[in-house]
Amino acid sequence: MTCAACSLTPTTSPAASFNKSIIQKWSLNNGAVLFYKKPASSILTRPCAASSSSSSSATTKKKRKKKKKKDEEEEEEEEEKDESRSGDDESSSSMMKRLDDVNPVGLGRKSRQIFDEVWRKFSGLGQISRTIRSDEDDEAVGGPMCEFAIPGAQNTTVLVVGATSRVGRVVVRKLMLRGYNVKALVRKASQQVVDMLPTSVEIVIGDVGDSLTLKAAVENCSKIIYCATARSSITGDLNRVDNQGVYNLTKAFQDYNNKLAQLRAGKSSKSKLLLAKFKSEDSLSGWTVSKGTYFQDVVATKYDGGMDAKFEFTENEEATFSGYVFTRGGYVQLSKRLSLPLGSTLDRYEGLVLSVGGNGRSYVIILESGPSADTTQSKMYFTRISTKAGFCRVRVPFSAFRPVMPEDPPLDPFLVHTFTIRFEPRRQRVTDGTTGGNQDLRSFQLILEYIKALPTGQETDFILVSCTGSGIEANRREQVIKAKKAGEDSLRRSGLGYTIIRPGPLMEEPGGQRALVFDQGNRISQGISCADVADICVKALHDSTARNKSFDVCYEYVAEQGKELYELVAHLPDKANNYLTPALSVLEKNT
Amino acid sequence: MALRIPIHHMTMKKLNSHSNGHTPLSWRCNLATDALLSPQSSIFLPSCSPSGQVKPLLVTCASGAAPSAANLAPGTPVRPTSILVVGATGTLGRQVVRRALDEGYDVRCLVRPRPIPADFLRDWGAIVVNGDLSKPETIPATLVGVHTIIDCATGRPEEPIKTVDWEGKVALIQCAKAMGIQKYVFFSIHNCDKHPEVPLMEIKYCTEKFLQDSGINHTIIRLCGFMQGLIGQYAVPILEEKSVWGTDAPTRIAYMDTQDIARLTLIALRNEKVNGKLLTFAGPRAWTTQEVIALCERLGGQDANVTTVPVSVLKLTRQLTRLFEWTSDVADRLAFSEVLSSDTVFSVPMTETYSLLGVDSKDIASLEKYLQDYFTNILKKLKNIKAQSKQSDFYI
């Protein structure tokens, strides 16, 4: 460039000053980077033109020819602007002569680069603001300016089951846009399926009906979104995907979490806290059996039938709490003061899980809380649990406990000091079961295996897209709902933080257009777009209010006059607004 | 599908050569299919050349809808969620793609085949199809099964403006018409009808006219300026302490965030009321170059090294470059200087548009907010990098 300018203009003085001014200006701007170009520019104006034009390659010549003209105009304005800067320190610069600097080829190239830059900026002024951007530049692709960016998304791997379903496809896209790592569980990696999914999605081949294949799928995942559904209404198919599939996957995911917890020697945030384990004779110590009645003032009723209970370790190595209550209003209970391991408090846990067996009675669990030194100030909180005939695990969240005295504040798990399980003959239901027709509802048997506290989590682990049942043909509905319900139940029992979304009939249309209704209790009647369901899934991932909730969702509908019974929360999903939190915070947990 | 694209009807005539200093453009286009015998309407647009001459600009287009094209055959109905984005790798295009994907559309992107494919589009879940507007034979295959076309394409500065922006667009619109595309959204430039001396604006204006005459269901959206463009032009140089070039032009531009444009576009897309309309999107406030630089300086906490180029110099350069044919695209690139010198305000009141689309004006990002976010993020990042480099010094 330098050379081109020099050779073209007859008088050297403007050209020289032009060269100088540009280069010096740039050395000013770029400080250290271009510093030692200065001496070269001041010494060499003419020689450079001759030698570099001869030595430089043919390609540069071509380009240069095109630029000749531009240079001419460039001179004019450069002169007027930059004259002021031309007086610069030349004494210090001459010290820094290097062999490299006087190399005419390198010099020509450098000055060409500088000129190109100046020209680019200059011509940029003459344009409507357009960004000239190279394709590798991904500033806008996932940069901080992106409204979709979610902090921590890069460290979160989400497994999407049913990634090719109507909802699943949009879920995958939304996750990708937000920068999550996405794994997709597919049955076959056929070309069609692969084409449907974004290229960076990790495809795992497996089947939710086959628990062995799920092990690999849940590896490294921290969240699961389950939007698969059976393709047919054949009962076997429904069971396999909607019921057994959910069960298998929760199991695989729990196994994986447990594995992680074991690796961290029980110190993981996923580890449960063992409160009591009944595996030996000794473990029964500390538990006391007591009895009482609700009508203490009526002496007569107290002795009319009698009651008895015992807690013993049987020969089959089972800790059994059994007995009978014939007294009207009587109860028997088993209680213990909890001794927590050092450094752990129950407020970091969100509920209890009991592994019990027996003949399927329902029990009342009572937690006493208050300062442990002074039991007179204890407050009692109760909840009712039902068991099944045979062994089962019962999950009781702390939020389910109600104070015995209605004026007491809600349960604070931090203060809990005594655990009681009480049997009372009231409100027992006949269970269809092994005990036969002559079962007496006043006798009971409860085999205790362990009591653990469930770790609390801020976020949901498993999002299940279920259905409300509306919009399915009547002859299929029963079966579908049965399978879906069974799936939901196994998820609730799994101990994972769950969110169950029951959308109305799905519609294939863009989302974010209409207000949504979040509700519980199977009352909704409208449809909803797949994209909105997907949006709820993605939003629920990091929303603490979505944890352990089941809810129905559909488009807003106008209730008929006089039938506005419900308190419904509606909000139009819009840019960056989080409609989910306010909508869900009023809904019940653990329903 | 039997397709007859009347590309061969389209002729481009240059009435004048470049040597007389300006290049009046004239295109004769014909959108008549052979089956169609409807009367044709011709529109003569006065094209003002800078020297004051008036040349007729002829755009001829078959008026009236072509009933044969819209309902071709009873086949699978096209899903309204399937859209094609042309120019998907661009500043605006990528935001449109992202927004559309997020709203649950099935997005197809028309991109030019290139050695390094635009992987980010595929990563987001869009389907990428290869095609080139300058090669009309590649277009029809990409339009199969598409309901709506969103056209955000503009030729790159370095390529001749006519191939993509005019010939390519004409071919695309003709093809869309022939294949019964149900909606065509076209992005144009604000005030493009007032500045026919700027080639890009003239082309955009002619394309608008062509689209309106084609009878296709369309929406034209005129834009003022992108905030994203300011980052590279002012914010980055200021942070890197390089020189910033600005003009002293009094022109004001109401810059707008492309994410907002994309959002409004998709709202407009679903709104039946805007069919066939011309909307103009503008940002909340119009800014001069000097104001933008001052804002960047304030937010960046650094004084900029500003080089102010008088508009007269730009104009002079343009005049000089137009003298020779081989500098004509340089002249085209500087053409906007004509607009800059004309003291225009690139802005429109948006209240009506907001109410038409049902958008709250509070949701539209202002330039102050946008740049503030940018600088906060970048400065935080720089801090992190500095902290890291200090740590690594320890090991060296």
Automatic annotation (TrEMBL), chain A:
- Tell me which residues make up the NADH:ubiquinone oxidoreductase intermediate-associated protein domain: 304-405
Q: Where is composition skewed (Low complexity) in this entry? A: 50-59
Q: Where is the composition biased (Acidic residues)?
A: 72-81
Residues covered by region (Disordered): 43-104
Superkingdom field:
Eukaryota
What range(s) does the NAD(P)-binding domain occupy?
Answer: 162-255, 460-543
Do you know which InterPro entries this protein is assigned to? Answer: Galactose-bd-like_sf, NAD(P)-bd_dom, NAD(P)-bd_dom_sf, NADH-UbQ_OxRdtase-assoc_prot30
Note the coiled coil stretches, chain numbering. Answer: none
Q: Where is the composition biased (Basic residues)?
A: 60-69
Protein name, UniProt field: NAD(P)-binding domain-containing protein
UniProtKB/TrEMBL annotation, chain B:
The listed locations are: Plastid
Q: Which UniProt keywords apply?
A: Photosynthesis, Photosystem II, Plastid
Which Pfam families does the entry mention? NmrA
A Gene Ontology biological process in which this protein takes part is: photosynthesis
Please give the GO cellular component terms listed in this UniProt entry: photosystem II; plastid
Q: Which SUPFAM superfamilies match?
A: NAD(P)-binding Rossmann-fold domains
Source domain of life? Eukaryota
Instruction: Specify the NmrA-like domain's residue ranges.
Output: 82-329
Q: Does the keyword Plastid apply?
A: yes
What's this protein's name? NmrA-like domain-containing protein
